[in-house]
Specification:
1 helix, mainly beta, 8-stranded antiparallel β-barrel, 150 residues, Porin
Amino acid sequence: MNSEVLNRQDLLFEEELILAEVKEYGFGWQKFSSGKFPIPAEGLRFDIRFEGHMIGKRINGHIEGVDHLTVRADGRLFLDLYASIKTKDGASISVKESGINAEGALRLGMDFHTSDPRYKWLNHKHVWGVGAVDFQSGTVKIKGYQNQNY
């Protein structure tokens, strides 16, 4: 996505997250994140609990969830996240995200659901997340952009 598509007026929110806990399935997270060990032919799977905050003009709150991360043998990372947002004004919002991680650069598609009338506008948005993850520090920064055509 170029800067013409992702300009300041399309920015919906910014997220700052920490990777709080990692569940491993036969291959250690430290081995993976060091980049010094080959990925097994069958690939890898991690469940990563994360939490943090999101800040934007129309949505602010705490987000927490789990990323069911799949790593292929060729090193390609696929993200499948389920999270909940608790806004500062008390609303609960569900979010599902899917995407890829290419050398720390994140590209995500985000879909939201809530029955809270203050945030039902989110139910009709498909949001593009662009950001970065630092596996060594366990920090993530994402910017969520809305498509103005929808």
